[in-house]
Amino acid sequence: MHTGVSPRKKERLKRKVRWRNRGGMRKEEGRRKKRRSVAIPGKQQHHSGEEAVTLIAMVKRQRRGFVR
What we know:
mainly alpha
């Protein structure tokens, strides 16, 4: 921004922008992790970050035919 914008307004604009490019977040979810979708038949579709990561890993392994 080269035009003269008062600092307070600048803050507000920044805040607005930050909101817009936060993918898959709801408004108040800044603190929470983005929900990941996991497509496993017969399982719940969306999970919070950690769970999703483990589940995705599991699914990948299954696809490779690895079963522990």
